[in-house]
Please model this.
Amino acid sequence: MVDVFVGTWNLKESKNFDDYMKALGVGYATRQLGSFTKPTTLISVDGDKVTLKTQSAVKNTEINFKLGEEFDETTADDRKVKSLVTIDGGKMVHTQKWDGKETTLVREVDGTALTLTLTLGDVVSTRSYVKA
Model:
């Protein structure tokens, strides 16, 4: 089921990302960089291990996980979170929890398009990617 997400995805369009970063507590200067950066996301699978790399001119991140198993993650904005990634109804649902807060990052593929929906409370951002 995770195979549909495998590949290299380039950011094409981003909506409401600054408000999402603000809700996370990201500072102004970092938000400005984040808003102008067009990252590439690489998703690969090796057995039951999934690797998700995000590469940009500003910062590169990599997480390795098994679906359905909680893991420790340090996010691009340096939050230390407990993460869980599952597949639910064809969507890759990534939940991050820290300091009594929770955000979800939901990836959904339609052909050569990937939509990432970021939700924190009532703040929702969508980021549209195209397969390279």
About this structure: The CA atoms of residues 37 and 106 lie 20 Å apart. The longest strand covers residues 101-110. The two ends are 20 Å apart (CA to CA).
